Amino acid sequence: MTEPNVTVDPAVLEGLDAWRALPIKQQPQWADAAELDRVTAELSKLPPLVFAGEVDQLTDRLARVARGDAFLLQGGDCAETFDGATADKIRNRVKTILQMAVVLTYGASMPVVKMGRMAGQFAKPRSSDSETRDGVTLPAYRGDIVNGYDFTEESRRADPDRILRGYHTAASTLNLIRAFTQGGFADLREVHSWNKGFSENPANKRYESLARDIDRAIRFMGAAGADFDSLKRVEFYSSHEGLLMDYERPLTRIDSRTGNPYDTSGHFLWIGERTRELTGAHIDFFSRIQNPIGVKLGPSTTSDDVAKLIDILDPNRTPGRLTFITRMGAGVIRDALPPLLEAVKNSDALPVWVTDPMHGNGITTPNGYKTRRFDDVVDEVKGFFEAHREVGTFPGGIHVELTGDDVTECLGGAEMIDEETLASRYESLCDPRLNHKQSLELAFLVAEELAVLA
Ligand code: PEP
Ligand code: MN
Fold it and tell me: From ligand 1's centre to the CA of 273, what distance in Å?
């Protein structure tokens, strides 16, 4: 991928650095410029994490979603951490996503495109550049790829070496994901085993009964002579917010088959709500790469913003190229989303529409925890389906912050986590995630909404 045997248009190469002259947000102040240069030069020589062919395949899968023939499930941590890249945690997250996907596929009889917020979700946008505790002010935590969470001067220093550690942690995470999803672990005949190790609860019970139905169907098909080789392997894509330009630019490479640039840090990159201004650095950079791109849309988004984003990011109207991830808030989505859907429906564009029911529903409890109510998450998902039904567009997917562990970060769900309980196992360094049970519960609900469509 690095040594093109096709001629590369010099304007394409030059364009990949045009963002440097544009206004840019949410980048760290690195402590040492020479150190940063050394790191980005090294990163630009390291192997790509994903390959152009896989990225194109994902664009094709997302085109099916755009047409209403498949559904996208995207989930993972708000912020991955270096310490959190353990076999157990990665496996539990992959299992949770596989289980949710089975619930959705079975409930809706529709293929599900599986995508982790994994193997690169290390950089975070922050509402303030600094944080003050007990009269001491230090730079804000921007994710493990920039600085440390501990509130000390040393830890909060933006350290370029962390960029390389981010790359290597992403590589080992992706390696394990590939092993699990290509090596038999994700075989649909293992549908029961994905539920093992998770504690008993109503959502798990419901899952078990669904897994029994699937087993029976597979045994029947097997007896009838079906060939199950295709069940052994599962397509699983990686994604993260394309935020930290000193990571994304060095990992952007020219595809030797076509001469086109791909950001090889992940299959899918999205631009966050805070960095999507039309004339800013992020929109310019991501408009120039071949990967399918997402853009988060908050409650203040206008139809005009959407039309302009389409023109810049998807000028050729390539199906699967552009995904809008709406994060409006439960109380707002039913009013704010339909006019956007209507405007796009009446245009020549066919983006994928995904709901992120997490980021519009943040609250802080009196005891100081950043949390979300499971009921609000559910309500935004319902509002998303209602809005699409009203306008006649396809609700293409769901984007959630989740973990496979039994954390207590979001309020409610079948276990009825309350404000007091939050303290018992709150592990996120950033936004609160659905735990394993809440994730399965949500999947059953989405499956019911999809079944109505089918
Ligand atoms: C996120 O996805 O963690 C995030 C920061 O989202 P948004 O850009 O929607 O605020
Ligand atoms: Mn988040």
Answer: 6
